[in-house]
């Protein structure tokens, strides 16, 4: 198991990872376009001039995309999950558990949302105190006892306290940009296939390969920093509640029915406390690139506390 580094240590690590992503993303994006330009049937000086003219436009467009996604991330996640605000008057039990843990740990109370689904899952999201939130499925609230629910709440609050949510939103936005570019490249092969110009098909093929490779690398960047966060949040929850067995029990129940029907977006699904792939029962590419460690391992480590 990854050793829990403490609150400040994990905050610092996530801050460094966030800065790393912010720096590496435009570098990878420009490298992708530069590689494509190298295969254009032009002289080197023309390629360089063309790249220097196009590069600022690319960065500005992506910067606008990032700012829009950054500002609207809460609304976009609500829309993708169908979550509705849960007020204190609607469920005092949940509200009191969240509030008590926040007071005990000196945290600002996040917004609470509910997904009307009988499956069991939960997630935290947000980039700052004004946008932090914790979302629960109705099934999770109904099927967990108070101690188990407190363990899940503590897990999600640990994500917020460790700034995991900010880092994940940055990675989701970045991977989304490459996913969009890869989709454009793949669709362009239809138009390129109809062209008869010499070398046109080769350029399109190169564009597809390079864009797909950049998308693959961006996915690896995300996976490389995402799996450890679940172990960290589990350890943080055990530290908050002093009851790791309760979270282990909650994870066992969650593992029996974690799929939220309304959530089809895989990027949003990675926010959940358990994000198994539909093909979790067999070997697949999805399992190879899972965003979460096996829940059985997480339960095992919690039971050893």
Characterization of this structure:
This protein is mainly alpha-helical. The chain has one domain (7-303). It contains 11 helices and 4 strands, in the order H-H-E-H-E-E-E-H-H-H-H-H-H-H-H. It has a 4-stranded mixed beta sheet, with helices on both faces. Helix 1 (7-38) runs parallel beside helix 6, helix 2 (44-81) crosses helix 6 and helix 5 packs across helix 7. The longest helix is centred in the last third of the chain and has 42 residues, at 200-241. The relative contact order is 0.13. The model is unreliable at 279-288 (pLDDT under 50).
Low-confidence stretches: 279-288
Strand composition percent: 5-15%
Euclidean distance between termini CA atoms: 11 Å
Domains (count):
1
- Can you count the beta strands? 4
Helix content: 55-70%
The whole-angstrom Rg is 22 Å
Question: Could you give a short account of the major beta sheet?
Answer: 4 strands, mixed
Provide keyphrases for this structure.
single chain; about 300 residues; mainly alpha; 4-stranded mixed sheet; 11 helices; about 5% strand; elongated
């Amino acid at each position: 198991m990854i050793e829990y580094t403490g609150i400040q240590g994990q905050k610092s690590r996530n801050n460094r990872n966030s800065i790393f992503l912010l720096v590496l993303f435009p570098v990878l994006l420009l490298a992708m376009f530069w590689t494509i330009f190298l295969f254009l049937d032009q002289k080197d000086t023309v390629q360089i001039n063309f790249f220097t003219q196009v590069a600022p436009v690319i960065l500005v467009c992506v910067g606008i995309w990032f700012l829009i996604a950054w500002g609207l991330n809460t609304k976009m996640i609500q829309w993708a999950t169908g979550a509705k605000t849960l007020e204190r008057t609607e469920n005092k039990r949940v509200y009191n558990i969240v509030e008590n843990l926040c007071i005990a740990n000196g945290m600002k109370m996040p917004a609470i949302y509910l997904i009307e689904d009988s499956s069991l899952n939960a997630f935290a999201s947000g980039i700052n105190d004004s946008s932090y939130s914790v979302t629960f499925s109705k099934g999770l609230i109904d099927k967990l006892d108070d101690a188990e629910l407190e363990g899940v709440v503590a897990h999600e609050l640990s994500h917020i306290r460790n700034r995991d949510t900010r880092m994940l939103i940055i990675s989701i936005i970045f991977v989304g940009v490459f996913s969009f570019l890869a989709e454009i490249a793949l669709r362009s092969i239809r138009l390129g296939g109809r062209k008869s110009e010499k070398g046109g098909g080769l350029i399109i093929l190169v564009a597809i390969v390079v864009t797909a490779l950049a998308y693959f690398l961006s996915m690896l960047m995300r996976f490389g920093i995402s799996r450890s966060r679940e172990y960290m949040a589990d350890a943080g929850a055990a530290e908050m509640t002093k009851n790791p067995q309760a979270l282990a029990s909650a994870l066992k129940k969650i593992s029996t029915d974690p799929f939220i029907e309304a959530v089809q977006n895989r990027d949003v699904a990675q926010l959940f406390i358990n994000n198994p792939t539909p093909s979790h029962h067999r070997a697949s590419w999805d399992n190879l690139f899972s965003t979460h460690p096996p829940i059985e391992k997480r339960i095992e480590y919690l039971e050893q506390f």
